[in-house]
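Can't paste images in this forum, so I'm doing it all in text. The chain is below; anyone willing to post the predicted structure tokens underneath?
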Amino acid sequence: MNPDVHRITVAGDRPYDVLIGPGVQSRLGLVLDGIARAAVVHSRSLAAAAGAAVETLQQAGIAAEAVVVPDGEAAKTAEVAAGAWEEFGRLGLTRSDAVVGVGGGAVTDLAGFLAATWTRGIRVVQVPTSLLAMVDAAVGGKTGINTAAGKNLVGAFHPPAAVLADTDALAGLPEAELRAGLAEVVKCGFIADGRILELLGTDPTGRRDTAELIARAVQVKADAVGEDLYDTGRREFLNYGHTLGHAIERVEDFGWRHGEAVAVGLVFAAELAAQAGRLSRADADRHRELISAMGLPTTYRGDWEQLQAVMRLDKKARGASLRFVVLDGLGAPTILTDPDQAWLDAAWAAVEEA
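Text version of the structure:
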């Protein structure tokens, strides 16, 4: 294998490989060798990348056709899913066929959900084209769509057959999208891998060490997912920063990028842990300083009462309890359930934009 390509295996009942490096999209035909048909789900803006995937599959003797969906979070609706299912029926996809998701996190979330639900489950191979999708959405087997009540509330756990994270796709990625993806990378540094924090501290743009950062973040996720597919134990720590982050996304009607919202959520969670006496002031400040250096937001202006109400509807909530992933120190995540309102209010004050 090309020495520039990282291979990370996600363990579990259905283990699979994540390949990270230049040109790995070309292996699509190999990972789906033996199937008859594939539906390549992609957003309108990625027609060229999807066309390349269709061509790769056809050269491997697989009858492949593109299924076009809207860009961004607009793809993750019941209406879009229903339309895609109709396309699958037209294509004659059977349980022995496959779905290929080509795109960012929204498309890989949708493609995985479509695969999980079509004939009660067919194979899916994810070909993420954004940094965010490479380190987060495409890996781990969580799939889903949004509803009026919140993000990803309808979905399924459906591990992919493989993930092909082709770093060539990042060459033309806008800086804002790259920064948004780095929020998920730095999250992995805070909860598990201090080397990530060192690399980003030296180069906050992430450009110098992109492949290593992706591989390290994927390894953190693989370690958690291999032990806990269903989000009942260690995997929940991957939600660090996401409770407030998802609430911001919902309140903003997904006008904020996921990584930008998570960045604010990370600062909030660090402040909450500091208020609870779990995290040192220096480590809480390190969150804000590093995230700011990376060009990500650390403050947000919003309705605190509304955000709290949305957080209580988050899929990570348990009954009436409000749960946050917090740190007992860098690399030491834990769960804080129903924190004191005074701690919540103080943490909010620390991120509230004046």
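DSSP finds 13 helices and eleven strands in the chain. The first helix runs from residue 28 to 31.
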